[in-house]
Amino acid sequence: MPETANLQLGEKKFDLPVVVGSENEHAIDISKLRDQTGYITLDEGYGNTGSCQSSITFIDGDRGILRYRGVPIEDLAEQSSFIETAHLLIWGQLPSSEQLDSFSRHLTHHQFLREQLRQHFEVFPPGSPPMAVLSAVLNSLACFYPELLDTEDEELFEEAAARLISKVRTIAAYSYKHDMGHYLVYPHPEKDFCENFLHMMFSEPYRDYEPDPALVRALDVLLLLHADHEQNCSTSTVRMVGSSGANLFASVAAGVSALWGRLHGGANVAVVSMLESILEQGISVKDYVQQVKDKEAGIRLMGFGHRVYRNFDPRAKIIKKQAEAVLAKIQRDDPLLGLAEELEGAALADDYFKERSLYPNVDFYSGVILRALGIPTSMFTVMFAMGRMPGWIAQWYEDRFVTRGRIHRPRQVYTGPTEVCYVPLSHR
Ligand code: ACO
After folding, report:
1. Taking Cα atoms as reference points, which of 62, 59, 7, 72 lies closest to residue 38?
2. Pairing between β-strand 57-60 and β-strand 26-28 as defined by DSSP bridges
3. Nearest CA to 158 among 113, 217, 109, 203?
4. Is 43 part of the annotated catalytic residue set?
5. Is ligand 1 within 6 A of the CB of residue 358?
6. Please, which of 81, 110, 143, 286 could form a disulfide with 166 given CB 3.0 to 4.6 Å?
């Protein structure tokens, strides 16, 4: 492979350095391109643009590989936990037992919300979108911890990170309970991360919720699978906001907003809505697939396709198994799972999907698990945000303290009018 790329613009030739990653990915370094040539590159949607060098997560979309800090996602899903994986992502290594204990204690210590912060929930009208509530409350953490806002002080990072990973779960559960008009349940210091979340969601004043360990494990795996995914839309947002010097709370709150959209974190909601509407309307799988292929009214098969994975999404394989295990445990025959399987089979056998390399992504089955756990559809994207929190934090830290990136400031190719004279109001 050449060490430089050659660019010819008219008569002039330029050498551009080639950067090679540890997994042999090749990138043409254009950071000096504009200075040298006066040109910029144009890559709408950034499909061919590396925005940073990162040592956190590796994805090979063609081979269906996902690794956090080098560890395959399959091994983590089999043997690790969400909290251990969060440590791996943020600090770059799997923790020793002492480190894991200390990290878990730290999280437990920070799981409560200040009483004033609890009152924030009162101001949101019933039916408020939980992602709006989550983003707003996360942002307001900055008001409660002003001592953690100095983004130049690396020592403060650990405190802010622990607060976020722990409190996001409390905020998520409170937003649900408040919306339901239910009594808010305090986190329990003896319960582990996922059990505690389910406790805050489903315990009642006179009855503690005792989930089946298989369900707790399924939730843990689901969060772990969502923990990072390199430079996706929300993570790039977190890094971009952080690059201006904004604090960690503000940066992840922006990530929540980016995740909200139906083409990103909102896709698992869209999958369930799609399955429900197929069932309600009594459309056959064959007819629905045909409607998708005809691109009628822009219908897409939600939960299919991925910008990066072009053969299969490794997370989808793992989560499908978890969905089956959970349903077997609760012995509920969910018609949505049957329909999802039927749709998957029909699409995978169809040339339209084969030619475009469209395979089920993680969202195709995550909604089924969340439904089985009793999580309402309106909370699905919030669950994704809880899972993604360690990744956002790790990526923010890397940009601020490891690579010490510049402020992110893309350019554009302007296509508007050239200079136009101002016409006074009286002449218009
Ligand atoms: N159903 C039907 N057709 C599709 C789908 C789909 N789910 N996804 C892509 N296509 C088609 C497009 O219409 C296009 O067809 P064309 O070549 O005839 O014009 C072709 O496949 C390429 O599609 P793009 O939109 O260029 O693919 P892109 O990489 O930009 O989009 C995306 C990826 C947004 C995920 C897309 O596949 C999609 O909309 N999927 C459904 C939403 C979804 O599940 N999102 C979750 C992503 S995973 C995550 O965020 C955790």
Report:
1. 7
2. unpaired
3. 109
4. no
5. yes
6. 110
272 CA from centroid of ligand 1 (Å): 17
Measure the CA–CA gap between 208 and 312, rounded to whole angstroms. 40
DSSP state letter for 3: S
Helix (H) or strand (E) holding 28, with range, is strand 26-28
* Ligand 1 neighbour 226 (Cβ under 6 A): no
Residue nearest to atom 14 of ligand 1 (CA): 356
Residue 397: which of 246, 254, 242, 256 has the closest Cα? Answer: 242
Catalytic annotation present for 188: no
301 lines ligand 1 (CB under 6 A): yes
User: How many whole angstroms separate alpha carbon 145 and alpha carbon 360?
Assistant: 41
- CA dihedral of residues 249, 118, 380, 71 (deg, nearest 10): 50
Query: Is residue 367 lining ligand 1, measured as CB closer than 6 Å?
Result: no
Phi then psi for residue 271, to 5 deg, are -65, -50
Smallest CA separation from ligand 1 atom 20, residue: 356
Question: Each residue of 237-280: pLDDT tens digit?
Answer: 999 999 999 999 999 999 999 999 888 888 888 898 999 999 99
Which pTM was predicted? 0.90
**DSSP tag of 5:** E
